[in-house]
């Protein structure tokens, strides 16, 4: 899907150089992948402390049950 974006030339060239990408498209694609991964990590981080569990539960014992 062709998309026209007005991206700062200095930023895209710096990203291309740092990432050792041959094309602007590769640099933008890689940046978007990293952005998505980071946002997903932040969403997971928000779950810490919100999951209810039983402290007396023996997860090691449960793993060994066949």
What's this model, at a glance?
This protein is mostly helical and 66 residues long. It has helices spanning 9-18, 24-47, 59-64.
| DSSP, total strands | 0
Mean pLDDT: 88
Helix content: 55-70%
Number of helices: 3
SSE topology string: HHH
Shape field: elongated
Q: Main beta sheet, described? A: none
From the alpha carbons, calculate the radius of gyration and give it in angstroms. 21 Å
Low-confidence stretches: none
Alpha carbon gap, first and last residue: 50 Å
Strand composition percent = under 5%
Structure description:
The longest helix has 24 residues, at 24-47. Helix content is 61%, strand content 0%. The protein has helices spanning 9-18, 24-47, 59-64. By secondary structure, it is an all-alpha fold. The mean pLDDT is 88.
Strand and helix map with partners:
Blueprint: H1 9-18, H2 24-47, H3 59-64
Helix pairs in contact: 1-2
Descriptors for this entry?
single chain; 3 helices; mainly alpha; 66 residues
């Amino acid at each position: 899907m062709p998309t026209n974006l007005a991206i700062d030339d200095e930023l895209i060239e710096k990203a291309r150089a740092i990432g050792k990408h041959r094309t602007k498209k590769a640099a933008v694609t890689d940046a978007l992948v990293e952005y998505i991964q980071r946002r997903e990590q932040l969403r997971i981080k928000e779950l810490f402390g919100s999951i209810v569990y039983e402290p007396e539960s023996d997860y090691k014992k449960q793993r060994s049950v066949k």
